Amino acid sequence: MNSAIQCLVHTPEFSRYFREDYRQEINWQNPFGMVGELALAFGELLRKLWAPGRALVAPRAFKQELARFAPQFSGYNQHDSQELLAFLLDGLHEDLNRVKQKPYVKSRDADGRADEEVADEYWANHIARNDSIIVDVCQGQYKSSLVCPVCNKVLVTFDPFMYLSLPLQSTNTRMMTVTVFSCDVTSLPNACTVTVPKQGRCRDLISVLHNPTVVPYS
Predict the structure, then answer these.
(1) Which ranges carry the USP domain (predicted)?
(2) How far apart are CA 43 and CA 20, in angstroms?
(3) 8 A C-beta contact, residue 43 and residue 8
(4) Fewer CB within 10 A of the terminal residue: the chain, N end or C end?
(5) Distance (Å, rounded) from C-alpha 113 to C-alpha 20?
């Protein structure tokens, strides 16, 4: 929770927005929101964190409100930070949605139109139902293309997103710290950190240790 809160309160757009009169934009009647209570709890927490002279803030009140609407985050068990951040952004968006009555919107096919025109149309449809500080700062849209294998017709859509999951770069090596004992009894053991293949063997470690560039710890 701490890492998610720190990311949001140090986003300049959010810090300015919640230190101003954000209550005017709370959507009290939104059935998809938290009756404005999540936005109020987060706004009060942010103001305390940015208050002059404050050195320590315990977010107990905010955590209690969060647990009311998301019991999975109650207690003090370990949870995934991205899951909490996703729930928090969704909840803040619905609590601060400027659209009071969401209209029915039907998207048209691209039909060969320029991507810029189709993207603007899809974004306008999205804004007609979702308009908040969260949308302004955190949301965008990506292009999806689907080709029919029979008639080769291309269906182009632009879908909104708020967060993207990116894979971590994989590596074929790992670092190891080993202690080398010399056959010379007068030499002291040396600890060295070396890089070896993940699926390597002892000979790979020995080969690296023979490298004169390996520097032992002092």
Answers:
(1) 1-218
(2) 10
(3) no
(4) C
(5) 42
Q: Within its chain, how far is the Cα of 161 from the centroid?
A: 12
- Our CA dihedral for 197, 201, 204, 207, rounded to 10 degrees, sits at 160
Residue 50 and residue 19 in contact, taking contact as beta carbons nearer than 8 Å: yes
Residue type, 115: D
What distance in Å separates the CA atoms of residue 213 and residue 113, rounded to the nearest whole number? 60
Between CA 194 and CA 199 the distance in angstroms is: 15
Q: DSSP code of 171?
A: -
Return the half-sphere exposure (C-beta side, CA atoms, 13 A cut-off) of residue 205. 14
Taking the C-alpha atoms of residue 170 and residue 198, their distance in angstroms, rounded to an integer, is 11
At residue 214, the pLDDT reads 55
* Segment among 10-14, 25-29, 80-84, 206-210 with least mean pLDDT: 206-210
pTM of the model: 0.72
**Residue 16 is encoded by which pair of tokens?**
């300015």
The pLDDT value recorded for residue 88 is: 94
Q: Are the C-beta atoms of 41 and 66 separated by less than 8 Å?
A: yes
C-alpha–C-alpha distance, residues 12 and 44, integer Å: 16
The 3-state secondary structure of 106-121, one letter per residue: CCCCCCCCCHHHHHHH
Contact between 155 and 143 (Cβ < 8 Å): no
Residue 109: closest CA among 65, 177, 155? 155
User: pLDDT confidence of 218, banded at 50, 70, 90?
Assistant: very low
